[in-house]
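Predict the assembly for these two chains.
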Amino acid sequence: MYFKCEKSILQDAVFTVQKAVTGKSTMPILGGILIKAYDGEILFTGSDLDLSIEKKISSEVIEPGTVVIDAKLFGEIIRKLPSDIIEIKTIDSNSIQISCQKSKFKLIHMNSDEFPELPHISENMIFSIPQRILKNMIKGTIFATAADDSRPILTGVLFEIKDKRLNLVALDGYRLALRSENLDTENVINAVIPGKTLSEVSKILDDSDRSVNITFTPNNILFHLNQTKITSRLLDGEFIKYTSIIPSEYSLKVTAKRLELLDCIERAALMGKEGNTNLVKLDIEEESLVITSNSQLGTVREELNIILQGQPLQIAFNSKYLIDVLRIMEEEEVIMELTSSVSPCIIKNSGQDNCTYLVLPVRLLNS
Amino acid sequence: MYFKCEKSILQDAVFTVQKAVTGKSTMPILGGILIKAYDGEILFTGSDLDLSIEKKISSEVIEPGTVVIDAKLFGEIIRKLPSDIIEIKTIDSNSIQISCQKSKFKLIHMNSDEFPELPHISENMIFSIPQRILKNMIKGTIFATAADDSRPILTGVLFEIKDKRLNLVALDGYRLALRSENLDTENVINAVIPGKTLSEVSKILDDSDRSVNITFTPNNILFHLNQTKITSRLLDGEFIKYTSIIPSEYSLKVTAKRLELLDCIERAALMGKEGNTNLVKLDIEEESLVITSNSQLGTVREELNIILQGQPLQIAFNSKYLIDVLRIMEEEEVIMELTSSVSPCIIKNSGQDNCTYLVLPVRLLNS
């Protein structure tokens, strides 16, 4: 193997595929990056079996070949080399030389035969979506996945396509996050993608309107963008029927400025931190919302103007769940739909109908 | 107590004195900030006994008084309040109210009688120096203090004034850092300041030419800048006679571009990381310096142009010590003064004579 490549291009490729090299595998070969040089192109691959990332770049290939190199060390070397042409070539049966200007590294490489084969996916593209939108949908749901493994399916995000709409859903038993976008497809899909791999995917997606093509197989999802292919294993099992959790009716509706509400809850949460209850109490009145909290160190009272449709209500929440939602939302005005102090609270944008958040209240001793 | 103050001014004061509240003390009162309101001024104090910081601000004081409030919670509350006038007043014997717009916090306060009295220092200012210069001198030496406590005096930085020159010195048994500035004073001082408190001091100093006034007592040093007073305990004991460690003669002298040398050593260090030896070998030749390193994963060879006066030499170092020094230095060109492969290496600026760094070599098996 022998090729030459501009440092910035090489660095970008290595950094991209490195995201799949988690260092958690017991297989030493998965600590490496597979480099395949052939006809004017080089293919880089990183994988932890759950998630695999491939990136193709154009380059001057003098002699084709395949090697596996330690991902961390290789990435650090490329990053530190001068911004110039980097030459990489095998110099004997088990080592390669990386050279750039007056720098010369000789690195042991691993046997590429040991590198696991990636699942073969024929790209019958199911749908295509601008990167920016998918990135936003992931960001808007992933925080609500379950942190512990007691119900593995809840550590993932549901990708559901039906009725020409893509829905991403995550829930952890205390709250639910649903983001939706219209989609021009007749397909019906129901697949759950591990939250951990999805978080790496969202780091690779950019904020542009350029498309990412998505393909599903029974066990995998493939994201294809530009010269990058990301393959993630799907989680086994059935996702919870989330539509039955989201109440379709409500008896009162609160309209509030999102950032003002967020600021008030964040301040109230400062007092709730003691003892880790995170408890904040909401007193919903005719024209104002009063938020209170207390701990051994003191009390806090916050007040903001709202528009209430329905009867006043007192209800309490874990402040963390409200804060997570209000921080991730984007519109200026939000709507809270409530029924009683023990039923779920729905939070939506007052404008666009592209998200539904559900937060369970905390039952107070006197309620 | 009852006063009103603009949020930004209050926040600045609280953040400054909080730096002395380390939360490591066993005395609960030291987790608090002492607030003294009197004639149009408020004095904030934080202390962990080793380091005390006082900051005075002007403010509308309606009723004088003194309280101690939990530093962390108070700082978080002030930070999260809207940018507006904040009112603080005692509302009963053990609590205060903080209010701003529609936010109201009621906080338990601690008994200010329990707050330890700060050492009384009469300010017979010994010298005055621009903040920017002192900050730079601290940054340029503090990294060489000893990390472990086996010789407590080495965890500090020596402030030495003699011959109209201020010298800051730190050393840890493997390397030494010395920064010097001319000073218009006849005083002679020899005091060692704990590295930990000095690092907080340097965070408060800004990059301006405004002066900081410095006063010494037998047990303390006082830094006075604008409305802020920082008092640090001095370390007991005699500092090592550092001048006898620094060789006054050398047999070869290397002149190199600092950033080029740093880049080469940083890259070479990537290979030396394996097994944590950090070893890099320098081959000093007539017109070039060759740097090599190796580990189980491979080898590296770096080369850069230098000017050598004297005979060629091979010498090895812990790369970390060279990197620390070359990163902190500022000039374009550095000079290394060497004698043999087992004697200390001196690193200086090629221009200004304001710093002397010493690094001990690593003895190689074959040398």
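Chain A touches chain B through 30 residues (CB under 8 Å). The mean pLDDT of chain A is 94.
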